[in-house]
Amino acid sequence: MRRRAALAALGALGPWAAARADEPATFNVVLRGGRIEPSRLEVPAGRRIKFVLRNDGPGPVEFENLELRVEKVLAPGSNSFIVVAPLRPGTYRFIDEFHPDTGRLEVVAK
Questions:
Q1: 51 is a domain residue
Q2: Which residue range forms the structural domain that includes residue 94?
Q3: Residue 34 to residue 97: CA distance in whole angstroms
Q4: How far apart (Å, rounded) are the C-alpha atoms in residues 41 and 106?
Q5: Most buried among 21, 28, 51, 82, using CB within 10 Å?
Q6: Does pLDDT of 9 surpass 80?
């Protein structure tokens, strides 16, 4: 009887557990003063990635990677996020389009 109750409880958790496993890996990114912090991130390959973006600078920023078709403009003091499809192993470069010389993020999928 206890075994059935335990299995029933696990079955009830099944959809919840599956949803948790499907959640993207989340990384915080701050754009401030023409810079992106951190400037390098290692992320899991083969898994969706969520970047939580925060603009702490005095002007607008544009977080972008044309290869992945990512483009997000943030007003000063605003927050947003993007979710990227599972990445193949490799290096992906994101920039702040308004500060391309100094606003860079290197994402390494392993």
A1: yes
A2: 24-109
A3: 10
A4: 6
A5: 51
A6: no
Instruction: State the CATH number of the domain containing residue 68.
Output: 2.60.40.420
Encoded amino acid at 3, one letter: R
Q: Within its chain, how far is the Cα of 98 from the centroid?
A: 20
In-domain check, residue 12: no
Beta-carbon neighbour count of residue 48 at 10 Å? 16
Inside any domain, residue 86: yes
Q: Tokens 């290096």 appear where? A: 91
Q: What pLDDT was estimated at residue 22?
A: 81
One DSSP character per residue, 2-27 reads HHHHHHHHHHHHHHHHHHHHHSPEEE
What's the average model confidence in pLDDT over 63-74? 96
> Considering the entire predicted model, what is its pTM?
0.79
